[in-house]
Specification:
single chain, 133 residues, Rossmann fold, two-stranded parallel ribbon, 7 helices
Length: 133
């Protein structure tokens, strides 16, 4: 399959809610089916809202039960500090970026603008995939 990926919170939510065009689902399905990688921050962000308000909460919990949740290690913490010293970025986004860099994963996110200035971070916008020719 090639490069491995880290899924940002918006990608997890939009994928499970069925909000992507078919081209994006076709591209994401093998990634999701092969090896789901998310940051512990993504798990916290996605599961932190009130579950009584959403009958899809169990689907989200099941998703994270099978995902590879990448925790905060000392290496990720130090990379997060380095990123925040050089960029104006929210702490959760810095942790997600650091997690991707430390684990050599491309970050799949719709929020390219939040991450684009971080050196060494590979970004993929799932809504901006090239057409196969």
């Amino acid at each position: 399959m090639g490069r491995k990926h880290l899924l940002d919170s918006n990608v997890v939510i939009d994928y499970l809610a069925g909000l992507y065009p078919q081209k994006t689902f076709t591209w994401l399905n093998p990634i999701i089916n092969q090896d789901i990688n998310t940051s512990v921050i993504t798990k916290i962000e996605v599961l932190s809202y009130n579950p009584e308000k959403d009958d899809n909460y169990a689907v989200l919990v099941d998703f994270f039960d099978v995902a590879n949740i990448l925790d905060l290690t000392e290496t990720v913490v130090m990379k997060t500090i380095e990123i925040r010293q050089g960029n104006r970025i929210k702490l959760p986004d810095a942790i997600i970026a650091a997690t991707a860099i430390v684990h050599n994963l491309a970050l799949i996110t719709r929020n390219i603008k939040d991450f684009q200035k971080i050196k060494g971070l590979i970004l993929i916008n799932p809504l901006d995939l090239p057409d196969k020719s």
